């Protein structure tokens, strides 16, 4: 599947962005049709019962909640390269894989659902699954599902050591770009933009650079948010 398709990654540690703790992943064949974000603000209501409402007092801003919707299709282009035996139960197998990765089943090794990360282009957010709804809407004559609409609901996680950090889902850093000039090197670009040269390998991966020591002047680099845990 294309590298720019949305990927749901499962981790067995709360420091999910560490490569060594990745345990599984699910890549969607067709990127989400909708992506809904719910940003709540909690206020305490003053006053006693039987009285008119007063001035609500700010309490907290809960974690972002967001929902993605995409399709698993077993009718054609996504399964043509698979063996015929794999094509028969493609939708069922994909749904089973999605459930395993997202943690709608308990991971016995950590006694809880998996920690998750959503990767899509330069976008990355650590989260947990809160709901998974599967709607089958096309079938073979024998009842085998051929297409399913998937609706996943997630809640953002602010991992250890990241209290108060702006959400990576809506961070203005997602829009940053840099045009390479003669003499630019990746560690220096990382230092200038992230206050540390240690992020140069993450920067190379984000831009799919095969040879980060030979930057091409005029090429644009994407400067996404970086993980503190991925050395």
Task: Give the helix/strand layout.
Elements: E1 7-11, E2 22-27, E3 34-38, E4 42-44, E5 57-60, E6 65-73, H1 84-88, H2 90-102, E7 115-120, E8 123-139, E9 145-156, E10 177-179, H3 186-194, H4 200-206, E11 220-222
Antiparallel strand pairs: 1-2, 1-7, 3-6, 4-5, 6-9, 7-8, 8-9, 10-11
Helix pairs in contact: 3-4
Can you walk me through this structure?
By secondary structure, the protein is α+β, with helices and mostly antiparallel strands. It has two domains: 7-169, Elongation Factor Tu (Ef-tu), domain 3; 171-231, LysM domain (Membrane-bound Lytic Murein Transglycosylase D, Chain A), CATH 3.10.350.10. It is built from four helices and eleven strands, in the order ββββββααββββααβ. The strands form three sheets. It has a seven-stranded antiparallel beta sheet, covered by helices on one side. A two-stranded antiparallel sheet has the order 4-5. The chain is flat and about 60 Å long. The chain starts with 6 loop residues before the first strand and ends in a 9-residue tail after the last strand.
Count of separate structural domains: 2
Q: Average pLDDT across residues?
A: 79
Query: What strand line-up does the widest sheet have?
Result: 2-1-7-8-9-6-3
Rounded to an integer in angstroms, the radius of gyration calculated over CA atoms is 21 Å
Cα shape = flat
Number of DSSP E strands: 11
What profile does the largest beta sheet have?
A: 7 strands, antiparallel
Cα distance spanning the termini: 27 Å
Oligomer: single chain
Uncertain residue segments: 163-175
| Percent of residues in helices | 10-25%
């Amino acid at each position: 599947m294309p590298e720019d398709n949305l990927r749901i990654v499962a981790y067995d540690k709360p420091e999910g962005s560490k490569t060594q703790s990745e345990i599984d992943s699910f890549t969607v064949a067709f990127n989400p049709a909708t992506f809904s974000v719910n940003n709540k603000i909690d206020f305490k209501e003053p006053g006693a019962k039987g009285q008119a409402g007063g001035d609500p007092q700010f309490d907290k801003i809960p974690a972002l909640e967001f929902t993605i919707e995409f399709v698993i299709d077993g009718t054609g282009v996504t399964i043509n390269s698979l063996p015929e035996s794999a094509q028969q139960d493609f939708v069922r197998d994909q749904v089973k894989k999605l459930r395993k990765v997202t943690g709608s089943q308990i991971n016995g090794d950590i006694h809880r659902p998996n920690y998750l990360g959503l990767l899509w282009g330069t976008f990355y957010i650590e989260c947990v699954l809160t709901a998974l709804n599967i709607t089958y809407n096309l079938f073979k004559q024998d009842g085998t599902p051929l297409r399913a609409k998937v609706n996943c609901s997630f809640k953002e996680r602010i991992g250890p050591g990241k209290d108060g950090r702006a959400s990576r889902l809506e961070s203005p850093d997602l829009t940053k770009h840099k045009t390479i000039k003669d003499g630019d090197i990746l560690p220096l670009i990382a230092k200038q933009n992230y206050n540390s040269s240690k992020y140069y390998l993450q920067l190379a991966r984000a831009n799919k650079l095969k040879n980060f020591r030979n930057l091409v002047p005029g090429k644009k680099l994407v400067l996404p948010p970086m993980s503190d845990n991925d050395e």
